[in-house]
Amino acid sequence: MSKLINPNLQALRAQVEEIVKDLHDLTIKIGNSELAQTVSDLRNRIHEPFMFVIVGEVKSGKSSFINALLDTGREITKVAPQPMTDTIQQILYGEEEEVIILNPYLKKILLPIDILKEIAIVDTPGTNTIIEHHQEITESFIPASDLIVFVFEAKNPYRHSAWQFFDYIHSDWRKKIIFVLQQKDLMPAEDLAITRQGLVEYAEKKGLPNPSIFAVSAKLELEGEKEKSGFEAVREYIANHITGGKAPILKLQNNIETSQNINERIFKGLELRQAQYEADVEFRSDIHQTLEAQEGKSIKQVDVLVENLIAGYDRITRKKEEELSHGLSFFSLLKRSLSAVFSKKASAREWLEELATSLETELNDELRAKLNSGVVDLADSIQQMAKIIDLKIRSSKTILRDDHELFSDIAEKRNNVLRELQEQFSRFVNRAENFTDQSLFPDKSPISTNVATGSGLAVIGIVLAAVAQGMVFDITGGILTAIGLLFAGISSRVKRKKILDGFKSEINKGRGKLEEEVSTNLKAYIQNLKVKIEGNFEKFDLLLEKEKEQIARLGVLHQSITERIQALGEMLRNA
């Protein structure tokens, strides 16, 4: 009959199976073993009959309902005053009757009953059972189910655990659900009507509009009072909505709907993962921009420092040049020579030595003061930048949390990398050697270890001062040596122009060297320090690179599955 109604069933089933296979591959790629198992179970059950899952609290009458529904004249599921269903029971068609124990919590009952060719029944323990593992195993059947039958005691359909389970089924899986009020024979008709209406309102409040509700009495059905038992309405519902050739198509529709549900959950997880990735990229860009801005600011500070050094250098050397020019005049030299003969006044040679000494003293005092002032500002700026970066790391935005149902492992991995980054950067800024090792210096020569006493950021000012002062005093020392040799060669028959030209030449060479070397060395230190700080983010950058690739790859797979689910869903609705 089903083949005549739908000759394309095999082709449709093959397409569903292919989609579920690809969805299973996707769940494996996202690394969620629980969801992968759910989809694997769904895939394995595509060829099984339409599956009813019977749920409800202990002693709600589930077992009696199943026995009456199958109407075999015998007890398929045991009924007793105490709770009997301590395992999940799959009731399936079999050519011969057989009970297969799969594990302590699950067994299959094979029966040669014709209705079981089209439907399979899963009898579950009570939703309020205290037996370990029942809930998780019951939940493993829900995604692959085609119809959920909630069985309540007619006198009290508001049991808490049953409705908790309803919330799980309805909100997470959006399964087809019908309600059965069992043991209606224990209630007056008017009370049953009130209970039924109350259940309608409660179900609608829970988000299930126009619920299908059946009031039945397994006792009356099994005693032969079939017109009063209410089971005729249940069987009619099954005949109209499931059997008679509809079950295979309905099952495929359910498989596609379940696949769509899982695919949508993956999409929502991917959205969160994408949002976290974008937040992390923004965070990383912010760190990079902070370093770029600080580098630019520090370089400008170096330029200002060098300008101040040069201004002080020019002022002192210009004054000494004027003194030299005046002192080397014919009359000044003659006067000094005669005075030296007849008095204790300094000779020309002694005067030049004094000039060189005063030049050295004034340059040292002037340049040292300017260096100390400029280096303090520069060091403060770098320290403030490091503190800002440390704060940014500690306050980075977390969107994908480590309790996420699909990507908890990804979130945990990110949290671990971020925590390691926090600890690593904190260690970095607190260790003096990170600011004094040779990789930071243009000539790859670290400063003396006894110069940079202290820890971490506290040594930056000392380091910068040592870098700059070393250059400054090497340069000025070289100038003064050259000038000293120039002055030492003077004779009584001095050539004024030669001395002045030599002085100017050495001063100009020193000026250019001072400007270039101090600027180059300080800027190189700053740039190398920036690279070293960036190095702390190597693992985080690698994480972002992998996340970008993985999100893109998973997104392509998800989109392909989405498009095929939509197309096949439309075909099944029209089948």
Straight-line N-to-C gap: 15 Å
Q: Give the domain tally.
A: 2
- Helix and strand composition category: alpha/beta
> How much of the residues is beta strand, in percent?
5-15%
Number of helices: 17
Helix percent band: 55-70%
Q: What's the SSE pattern?
A: HHHEHEEEEHEHEHEHHHHHHHHHH
Determine Rg (CA atoms, Å).
Answer: 45 Å
Strand order of the largest sheet: 3-4-2-5-1-6-7-8
Number of strands: 8
Question: Which descriptor suits the 3D outline?
Answer: rod-shaped
Compute the average pLDDT: 83
Low-confidence stretches: 1-6, 80-84, 330-346
Describe the largest sheet. 8 strands, mixed
Textual characterization of the structure:
The chain is α/β, with parallel strands linked by helices. Helix 2 packs antiparallel against helix 17 and helix 13 packs antiparallel against helix 15. It has two domains: 197 residues, P-loop containing nucleotide triphosphate hydrolases (Rossmann fold), CATH 3.40.50.300; 295 residues, no CATH class. An eight-stranded mixed beta sheet has the order 3-4-2-5-1-6-7-8, sandwiched between helices. Helices cover 65% and strands 8% of the residues. The protein starts with a helix and ends with a helix. It is rod-shaped, with a radius of gyration of 45 Å.
